[in-house]
Design a protein that fits this description.
Layout: H1 2-12, E1 20-23, H2 35-54, E2 62-65, H3 66-72, H4 75-78, E3 80-81, E4 84-85, E5 94-97, E6 102-105, H5 110-119, H6 128-136, H7 140-149, E7 154-156, H8 160-164, H9 167-173, E8 179-182, E9 209-213, H10 218-228, E10 232-237, H11 247-250, E11 255-259, H12 266-273, E12 278-281, H13 295-301, E13 306-311, H14 326-332, H15 335-338, H16 352-375, E14 379-384, H17 385-394, E15 412-417, E16 420-425, E17 430-431
Parallel strand pairs: 1-2, 9-10, 9-12, 10-11, 12-13, 13-14
Antiparallel strand pairs: 2-17, 3-4, 3-16, 5-6, 6-7, 8-14, 15-16
Helix pairs in contact: 1-2, 2-3, 2-16, 5-7, 10-16, 16-17
Keywords: Transferase
Protein name: CoA transferase
Pfam families: CoA_transf_3
């Protein structure tokens, strides 16, 4: 099944992937959804695409292990600094009983917390108990809409059947899992880094420059995956943007980090784009377009660019501009309802929509580099958490409700860093002759200048 899924992913983006050897099987995580198979397929497709990019004539063997992929989908749970785990959830984030069901509030960022409190008519400093009482007197959909109108993030628990009747679900069903299109009237060289070095022994993505304009979790996982195969990844944040402690470190292996304020320093980002191969962004749909950094703008700055957009619900339809996170998408699309007994939310045993979308994004980016090498042009990749959820739903069900959590034995490594000694899950997926690894520990935010580290540009 998993090998077939990987082949189908390649066909969906118009690239021929080499065979991937799969070890292990589902169920490997406690869920009725085949999360292990999905994890192995996503990681396996990314690995196969990298192998094809590195050795286009005779790609080396690629391998993915189901347990390793599943544990990688839980990477933040295993991450430690000096033996201490990170709590990634803010006090007010969580599930709340409403008058007619359940609603989840995502309050990890202060401005989202404040929006939720405004929507519920509560003062700053309100407690979780205050929020619970406010939600109990309102319907779940009322809370969802009120919080959304205030600029916050919430999701009412729906059944699968309930979600399938929603207008946004119908729009999502019409979209490809990994959208890959050539940008109109784009040009660009057909050559790309890696071709001239295909037999030099360098890492598979050596010479590929990736701008990471993302936070929490799918985008950072995508860029981290590319870094594991040798891409130069520069993460661009800003001092005023909030981050989730722990996650911002755990997803930053192998990257450099700089700060750019787009309000006052847009030219600094343009300079980086002009020398980049891939730009990954996960701002709310339309946000960067309004600042002159949409796909068409990027292609004009750097013909041959690969633009990657990650969103919660896609860029089209009534929810096309809605903010969202993995846990909320699980609630609204029926996963949290079906994964338990329906009486209260039961999330997946991993942030599978985030991690799945992250590996699919990395896969899409490399697939675009393959298409660019063969056809030239600039390319646009689109991935959404809700479309990944539909794909997972379409994979069927497994008898995994009582399966124990998988062991991480043999899958962890340690690395010294500015944050202490870090324990982390090694990147899944193997390529013969080029095992993925992160060459550097997570940097401090904004530690590096807004410039590329390598002296020369594209190959």
């Amino acid at each position: 099944m998993i090998e077939t899924l990987i082949k189908e992913l390649g066909e969906g983006v118009g690239v021929a992937l080499p065979d991937v050897r799969v070890t292990g099987d589902d169920p490997v995580l406690p869920s009725v959804f085949p999360v292990g198979a999905a994890a192995a397929a996503c990681a396996g497709a990314a690995t196969a695409a990298v192998a094809a990019y590195w050795r286009p004539v005779a790609p080396p063997e690629a391998l993915v292990d189901v347990r390793h992929a599943a544990v990688a989908f839980q990477s933040e749970r295993h991450f430690q600094a000096d033996g201490e785990n990170f709590d990634v959830w803010a006090p007010l984030s969580g599930d709340y009983r409403a008058d007619d069901g359940w609603v989840k509030l995502h309050c990890n960022f202060d401005h989202h917390r404040d929006a939720a409190l405004r929507a519920l008519g509560l003062p700053a400093g309100a407690t979780k108990e205050d929020v619970a009482r406010a939600c109990e007197s309102r319907t779940a959909l009322d809370v969802e809409e009120a919080v959304t109108r205030e600029g916050g993030c919430a999701g009412a628990m729906r059944s699968r059947a309930g979600w399938l009747t929603h207008p946004q679900a119908r729009v999502i069903a019409e979209q490809p899992l990994v959208g890959l299109t050539r940008l109109p009237d784009s040009s660009g060289e057909s050559g790309s880094p890696g071709i001239s070095r295909a037999s030099s022994g360098e890492r598979p993505l050596s010479g590929v420059r990736v701008l990471d304009l993302t936070r929490v979790i799918a985008g950072p996982v995508a860029a981290r995956t590319l870094a594991a195969h040798g891409a130069e990844v520069l993460r661009v944040g800003a001092a005023h943007l909030p981050e989730v402690p722990g996650l911002v470190v755990e997803t930053a292996f192998g990257k450099r980090s700089c700060h750019i304020d787009l309000c006052s320093e847009p030219e600094a980002l343009r300079d980086l784009v002009r020398q980049a191969d891939v730009v990954i962004q996960a701002y709310r749909p339309g946000a960067l377009n309004a600042r002159g950094f949409g796909p068409a703008d990027l292609a004009a700055m750097r013909p041959g660019i690969v633009c990657v957009d990650i969103s919660a619900y896609g860029s089209r339809g009534p929810w096309g501009g809605r903010r969202g996170f993995d846990s909320l998408v699980q609630m609204v699309c029926g996963i949290a309802h079906e994964n338990g007994d329906g009486s209260r939310p039961a999330p997946l045993p991993a942030q599978a929509l985030d991690h799945g979308s992250g590996f699919l994004t990395a896969f899409g980016a490399v697939a675009a580099l393959l298409r660019r090498r063969a056809e030239g042009g600039s390319w646009h990749v689109e991935v959404s958490l809700a479309r990944t959820a539909k794909w997972l739903d379409d994979l069927g069900r497994v008898d995994g409700a009582g399966v124990p959590q998988p062991s991480a034995d043999g899958l962890l490594a340690t690395m010294p860093s500015a944050f202490g000694t870090l324990t982390y899950v090694r990147p899944p997926g193997l390529i013969a002759g080029a095992e993925p690894y992160w060459a550097s520990p997570p940097p401090r935010q904004g530690e590096h200048p807004a410039e590329w580290a390598t002296a020369t540009g594209r190959g």
